[in-house]
Structure formats: structure tokens, C-alpha cells
What does this fold into?
Amino acid sequence: MKSKFNIQLLLILICIVLFLSNCNTNKHLANEQYLLSKNIIVQNNRKIKNKEPYALIKQKPNKKIFGLIPIFLNIYNLAPKIDKDHYFKKIGESPTIFNYRLTKKSANQIELYFKNKGYLDASVSYEIEKKKHKANVIYSLNTGLPYTIKKITINQDINKNIAESIQNISTEIKKGDIYNFNHLEEQRSILASKLQNQGYYKFNKEFIYFLADTNQKTKEIALELVIKSIKKIEDDSKIQSEHRQGIIGRVNVFIEPINYEVNQDTITTDGINFIFNKDTPLFNLKTLTNKILIRPGIPYNKGLFDK
It folds into this structure.
């Protein structure tokens, strides 16, 4: 009995869907407007399947069930034009009207996506197929060959200590790798974090940038990592200074909130000053000292304070 009911319900739903699919999808379009039907990205006359470039397209067609029927648009079109608050307009989906400006912007975004992946000669054009108030947008992609990294150098004018700290850049960005802008951006953040943990607590990734010298013939890139100095303005003059390493001077540990009405005492163990009220029973300072990783004379480590 239940099975029979389910079949009947399914048939009813199919009839509703077929009815809605025959609704006029152009009902809410003006004479010069077109409903965006499809976005297609092709390379060498073949449709690409990578979802990331499609995600960059600024306009998406109306949702379709089975990839064919824009049921939510059809529900929207059941509402009268003049009734803006009609129930069908609330549960349905308004038509995606083709927009030239957004299409051009989408083509630029797709092109930039592939350039950031190392295809620096990439270009994207588009054409619009129009038929019966519907528009298909076809983005044609020409990537060219990817550029590879020929060598990586570090600017010689930077602080020697900083240069030594980032020598292992070659382990993350290798000769022969395809140039990848997003990967370089990640490395800027990683290097900045590393330097912060080596005492350069005011350092951030904005002080790091890469210079890329490209060779169109060989499709190779020579990368130079540059560290900018600190710029200050004093007495209306611009002054440049090096990044300074912060060294921990004194480490004070207060055993409990200090009562300034009674006398305090201090015991120093392994360079750590334990300050306590004289009438306070002491902990095992040796055990406590072993738990403290911060010591006078070592570089400030931002990672330790973030834990």
C-alpha cells in the first residue's frame, strides 16, 4: 500500500515538474534582456572540467534539476509581474539576466587565475550565443606553456641574521618548479612567522616580496627574495633602519597576586625570578622552572606566547 502511494506521489511530482518546465522562462525579461543559460570554458576546443575556474564566473545560470529543468525559476515565473511580494517569488529564483560587464570581469578573473598558476601568457576571450531570449557564454582559454623557476636568490643588502634564517627558502621553492603566485604568498606568511619566532617580533609578511625576472623565450623566471627595511619619519625626514632582534631581558614569575602590604621575597632559579609574599608556602621551584620555556638572553619567540 505504501509502495503504491509512493509511486503515485512520484507521478504527481513528475507531472508538476513537466508542467513547470513548460512555463515561459522569459516572462520577467525585457525585450533587450537575455536569460543566462550556460557558462562553458573551453581549451583547445574541449570543455575543461576543473571546477575552480567556473567558481570565478560572476554570473551563474538558474539552478536546474537533472541539469535540464530550471524548476525554481519556473516557480518564480508563476507569480504575477506586478506582485513583488508574491509567495512564488519568495520560494522561487529570479532569472539570471545576462550582463556584459560581469562576463568581461569573469574572463579577466579566469585569465588571472591561470597566470597565478604559472601560465603567464594565458589569455581568455569570450563569445555569446543568443537564441530566443537565452544566452550561452563560451569562454575560450589559451594558456600557453607554464613558466618554471630558473633560480632563487636572496637580496644581499638585508640583515645577515635574517638572511641566514631564510636560507632554507630553497627547500620550499625549488629550481624547476612551475611558478605559482599563491604558493609564494604562502611562503611570505611562513617566513614572517619563522622570523617572529626568532626574535623579530615586529616583523610581518608585508616586509617580504619577490621580484620575478621573466624570460619569454625560455619560459623561465629568476626569483629574488627581498626584505624591506623599516621606514620611519623623524623631523620630516625619512629614515631607514634594520629589523632588530628582540632579546628577553628579565623573566619574573609571581607565585600569587602580590600583597603590597606585606614583605615580598625573590628567589632566582636558572635566571627566572620567582616573586612571592613572605608568608606564602613555596612550590617546588625546580619542577616549576622546568615547565617554563622562556629564559633571559634568548630571542623573543612569538610562538611560545601564543600557546
